[in-house]
Amino acid sequence: MTKSPLPKSETSELASLNKGIAEQRWQNAKTYEKTAPHEYFIKSWNPKLFSRFLKAIELNGKDEIFSLFGHEKMYRYIYLGKYRYWQDGVVLNRTKADKITHKKGVSEQKNEKV
Would 35 be classed as within a structural domain? Predict the structure, then answer.
């Protein structure tokens, strides 16, 4: 049997997050529908889940540079299930992980709907 790379408490928290994710309403990001399709929810919609996500991203996330139209920005991402999640201010975003490509340390997103 393979040992989990995360402590039991963190593994349990990530499993609990998955339940919260399934129950959370996600809004389609219309502004980026054709260039970087993703969904989001705002902190005020679910402050408890938002805070738990921030902690999970901080503890288990991975720093990656994201490029869009030649502009690059560093985000800290966490990959859970089929999605990649990241925080930007009071917004928690997600996109399908299989829509992300990595080249020379920079991630880009395929322009396909979430």
Answer: yes
